[in-house]
Amino acid sequence: MLAIPSRAYFKPLLKRTDDASFISFKGLRIVPLNLLLDRGGLDLSRRKLKYLMIYKCPKLSNVFDSFNLLQRLSCPKVKNFAATVISGGIQSTPMLKQIKLDGVDIMHNSRELMNAVVEGYSSHLSPLIASYSKKERRYTYTEMAVDIVISTIGKIGEFMVEPIGRKFEYLIHYNSNMETLKDQVQILEEVRKDVQGSVDAATAKGETIKNEVRNWMSRVEGVILEARKILEDDAVQNKRWFNRWFLDLASRYRLSRESEDKITATAKIKVDGQFDNVSMPAAPPEIVSQDFVIFESTRLAIMEIMEALEGNIINFIGIYGMAGVGKTTLVKEIERRAKEDMLFDAVVIAVVSRTVEVKNIQQQIADMLGFKFDEKREQGRAGRLHARLKSVDKILIILDDVWDTLDLAAIGIPFGDDDHKDPENVNRKVRKIVVTTRCRLACNSMTTGIETSKIIHLNALSENESWGLLKMNAGEVIDSPELNSVAKKVCRECGGLPIALVTVGRAMGDKAQEEWEEAALELQKPMPSNIDGTDEIVYKCLKLSYDHLKNREAKSMFLLCCLFPEDYNICIEVLVRYGIGLEMFKDVLTIQEARRRAHSITKNLKDSCLLLAGTETGCIKMNNVVRDVAKTIASDIYFVKAGVKLMEWPNAETLKHFTGISVMYNQINGYPASWDCSDLQILLMQGNCIEQPMPDGVFKGMTALRVFDQSDIISKGDPYFSRKLEPGFSFLTSLRTLIIKNCRIAAPAAIGNMKMLEVLSLANCKLLDLPQEIGELTNIRLLDLEDCHHSRKKLNAIFPPNVISRWSRLEELYSSSFMKYTREHIAELKSLSHLTTLIMEVHDFGCIPEGFSFPELEVFKIAIRGSVHHKQSNYLEVCGWVNAKKFFAIPSLGCVKPLLKRTQYLKLSSFEGLRTIFPYQLEDRDGLAVLETLEVSDCVDLEYLIDSEEWKMPPVIEQHQHTCLMHLEKLDLQCLGSFKGLCHGALPAEMSMSLQKLKSMRFFKCVKLSSVFASLELLRRFDELEELSVDSCEALEYVFNLKIEKPAFEEKEMLSHLRELALCDLPAMKCIWDGPARLLRLHNLQIADIQNCKKLKVLFDASVAQSLCQLRKLLVKGCDELETVVAKETQRQDGRVTVDIVVFPQLVELSLLYLPNLAAFCLDSLPFKWPSLEKVEVRQCPKMETLAATVDSEENQSTPKLKQIKLDEVDLIPHGRSLNKFIQKYSEARELRNLINDHQSRMRGLTES
Questions:
Q1: How far apart are CA 1091 and CA 1119, in angstroms?
Q2: What is the DSSP string of 648-709?
Q3: Distance CA 111, CA 569 (A)
Q4: Would you say the C-alpha torsion 377, 378, 379, 384 has a positive or negative sign?
Q5: Is the separation of the CB atoms in 457 and 325 below 8 Å?
Q6: What separation in angstroms does the CA of 726 have from each of 693, 700, 723, 770, 812?
Q7: Would you tell me the crossing angle of helices 174-204 and 249-272 to the nearest 10 degrees?
Q8: How far is 859 from 903, CA to CA, in rounded Å?
Q9: What is the dihedral angle through the alpha carbons of 1228, 1231, 1233, 1238, rounded to the nearest 10 degrees?
Q10: Residue 93 half-sphere exposure, CB side, CA atoms within 13 Å?
């Protein structure tokens, strides 16, 4: 071997002759000739020469004679090997086995002359390289192999021209590089944990995780796995050095270089992980329109609209028709169909209404897209909305109830730009707008052109259609001889308007003939002259429906709803509090009874189509047409100017005779000097920008006022504008309901003068103080201080002493974290004999007096050393660090025992000594009878949820056998270091009906849990289970025990309702189930997420895979020993026919990531079909050469909907090609790349040695 360490030593030898034929070392085997920069020829006739490496020799054009491998790099003039090669052909190099040109192996397996190979390769490679630089990353598999080779050539070239000194640096800094990489991986893992914690917290809030965060988490996982592989190889190198007493310099060089690359990658990705926030507010759940009836007229309109939406030309659709004809119902159906058919990436709908409120429209669209505005002004919000809408490739925007020309640009809706000028460009952005209006002129003024717009007139129903709709709502009774003729008169008077036909039909369905005749006469009467803006037919029909409401309560509630702005989500709880103040509910004794009455009334009004379901939980809405009629009916008693941009108070003289005034959500910035409204009973002025103090005498003339709502009074400069409950409140001696939310308040001593006050709500306020005089409110029945804060930045505010006990009529107290309860405060609760609802937080066990017991509460949210920020009612949280048996025995915690029989959500955390939870709570005969959710965390000694061995220790009452845990739907067990299983021993007979409604189970960091369902008998109880998550349970060996204990159980299918299965970080799990797989029939499984189960070798048997008819997403990641996803079952002894084919009819997304031993999705010849598969991602699966066998002769027919394939970092578009072919070609290219890398490593070792 001849080793030339540097060019300085080699140059003198070169000067002796014009070529390199002087070399005459007889034993020469390896010659590095990278320094022959100016040589033109070389004659090496050495018989023992086995390896010739030539690179960076720009003038070299002749290489001669015998060798086994020729590697040519950066020698652009080499065109032939020598005359002997040309004349003798293959015989000149009889031992030649491999030719490697610019990093590409060309096997010597033909009689072709080497010259032809070199020339052909040289002539074809250059244009390929030139074209490669112009390519995008998306290409088909026919180009893939060449591109991978070319990219690898570039890497080899970089190495070969690298200075030799740099190579030695990798060896010198080997140990420090490894230590730095180890430190960087640890730091990156901590950053990942922090981000994951933020992701988990956001997910718990129901927020949507940003795509950039998800992508970052995936990148981090890959970088960490690759870095760990380097560190593992380093450990192997160290072991070899210890055992063999020599260093593998080539491997150390490679590892050192790779470690530097990974150090740079970890540093960069760590910086990329500095997110301001990881999530966006989740888009609200979709509410589908109900009771939609398609008649011929509406069917034709729907066909026209859907055709326009599916096409490429029309971008604006205007729907016009008279009030009540069904425009809103129609576009809700269009919204539903567009989403169902997935025509757009996003579909949003906003109600415009008569008074255009730009901010409100912007907010509606933003809410449906799931993002929030940071900007306050309309112009800034418009720009933000415009950018957000343009970022969506395909979007449908529906604007309902437009009254006049709408400035779309002012709202931020992009329209009329260049997006639609090229109808043939199918990949363009698509934004389509649908508008409903009563006036065609509004449509005409908004269109961009005749060719790109469509105007549709929605006609009234025909006579036959009208009769059908009336009969649908009134019933078959109208076909009777007594009612038929008069019902047809009523039908004609409804004018073919669906809103009239539905409301009249539901109002008259159970009425006698005389009432039908009276209704026909009423509908024939002329409309009152003071009606403005309301269609005559609509008014008369809705007025008829109103007149036929069953009682005054329903009529009062209906008219109360018209006090709110158009399209407003009216909270039923607000109506309850208003109704109590107005004494609307007759013959009710408690607030809970009034609440139930209000819900019953609103349900009846919805059934009568006079109200609609709201888009928020606990809310209702009033159709704008119905609201106009309600306002007209109530025009003698109510003055309504809500949400109309009112700037100043109306003339005081015009308000004198009204009993109700609503000026909510306007822009009024002050008060009148005085009011003489002696008949006024309800005043609603929330949502204005009032900045000046209230005049002292402003309430002096309102002696009859019963309800006053002044919530959301904001200042332009300070959202928590400081407001006092002015001394003028002392005049409101008849006030029964006072609501002031979202303000900063100082309550004066004058508040004690409002002795009739029954409902006081100061929720979400910053309170300056609570005076002693608040105890004078002896008639108070509901006090709401939820989510309040102390404006002086104290941690908590404290009620004055001896106040609570004076509220003898108090029924409902909402306080949450605002109150810092002392022992004295809690002791005062004993005197509240009418208390039915309580929301409170107790910060310390010492605050609970001995012997105290909560009363028989109907509704509660109570947290002892916890938080009540939870939506579900009847919530009980106890955070411990006391002995378990003291939990239900010591006096300070015995107070919760009366609550257990009504508890729906129970959370226990941080208890020492708590070995089992049941049967401790069963000392009470109705314990946990209605429990729906149980969450247990950080109880270090907990071993079992139920311990049958100790079941008879406490006295168990017979009644429990049908009540305990019968309604439990969700079980969440977290961070339980000693937890071994759900049940110790067989489940007690007393619990024979328990646990059977469980729908969701989660096990997190239960490190001693070896099996979730330890017996088949236990598993049979969970027939309703829909979600199962097992995470970070180190000892878990399998999830399901399917071993048959009794023949009677053999044929019962298990887990047929399971929808989601997540198994993550289970290092000991070798199989998901133990026993015959045929008992698992996962017919409803939609999502399977299997990650970091290191010892898992097979995911599903074929019989289980065959049952996955609803599976939509399958993710398998980081399972080091996984060899195949689906394994064909061994021959059955029962003689049954084995599975012949597996079809995944609903599978849309398949991800196989970081699976080093995965050879195929299925190794056997079992054929698969994937009719819905759209996206496949395969990353770091080096042994995978094919996916699975297919059933069709043309393989692409097995994946007809495939849109995207991602193989490692390469994105591919299938264009109808076979998925198997892609993976096979990629595998071949990967093998070629690995071979190149192997030779590259060998060359490095040779040059370094």
A1: 6
A2: SPPPGGGGTT-SEEE--SS------S--B-TT--EEE--S----SPPPTTTTTB-TT--EEE
A3: 84
A4: positive
A5: no
A6: 8, 12, 8, 14, 26
A7: 30
A8: 9
A9: -160
A10: 29
**Cβ neighbours of residue 17 closer than 8 Å, sequence gap 6 or more:** none
Q: Measuring CA to CA, which residue among 396, 371, 384 is closest to residue 279?
A: 371
Q: Which residue is associated with the tokens 């908590």?
A: 796
Nearest to 1001 by CA among 973, 964, 979, 1020: 973
In single-letter form, the type of residue at position 753 comes to: N
> Rounded to whole angstroms, how far apart are CA atoms 549 and 425?
57
Residues 592 and 1176: their CA atoms lie apart, in Å, by 55
- Distance CA(365)–CA(281), nearest Å, equals 13
φ/ψ of 816, rounded to 5, equals 45, -135
Q: Closest Cα to residue 1161, out of 1124, 1190, 1116?
A: 1124
Tokens 């056997």 belong to: 1164
User: Helix (H) and strand (E) counts for the chain?
Assistant: 27, 53
Helix (H, G, I), strand (E, B) or coil at 607: helix
Q: Reply yes or no: is the peptide bond before residue 919 cis, omega within 30 of 0.
A: yes
C-alpha to C-alpha distance for 533 and 406, rounded to whole angstroms: 19
The whole-angstrom separation of Cα 750 and Cα 729 is: 7
Long-range contacts of 284-289 (CB under 8 A, 24+ apart): 284/367, 284/368, 284/615, 284/616, 286/339, 287/613, 287/615, 288/332, 288/336, 289/329, 289/332, 289/333, 289/335, 289/336
- The amino acid present at 917, given as its one-letter code, is I
Token reading at 290: 């109900």
857 closest CA partner among 917, 800, 813, 915? 813
DSSP 1021: T
The answer to whether 403 and 439 have CB atoms below 8 angstroms apart is: yes
Hunting for tokens 């990942």 — which residue is that? Answer: 192
Chain length of the chain: 1249
Tell me the three state secondary structure of residue 216: helix
Closest CA to 599 of 619, 583, 582, 616: 619
- As averages over each run of 10 residues, the pLDDT of the chain (1249 residues) reads 36 37 40 45 48 52 44 44 38 52 43 37 37 37 42 42 52 79 86 83 67 80 82 68 50 79 83 78 48 77 90 89 88 90 89 87 88 84 89 90 88 70 50 90 75 87 89 90 91 90 90 90 77 75 90 95 94 97 94 96 92 91 91 94 88 88 90 83 90 77 92 62 61 90 70 88 78 85 85 56 89 82 85 92 80 85 82 81 46 70 89 77 63 91 83 48 77 93 78 83 94 84 91 92 60 81 94 78 91 93 87 94 84 54 89 92 82 89 80 61 80 66 66 63 61
CB neighbourhood size of 46 (10 A): 19
Maximum C-alpha span of the chain: 129
Sequence-ordered strand ranges (E) for 740-788: 744-746, 759-761, 766-767, 782-784
Q: Are strands 316-320 and 453-457 parallel, antiparallel or unpaired?
A: parallel
The contacts of residue 181 (CB under 8 Å, 6+ apart) are 227, 230, 231, 259, 262, 263, 266
What gap in Å lies between CA 945 and CA 621, rounded to an integer? 45
Contact 202, 209 (CB under 8 A): yes
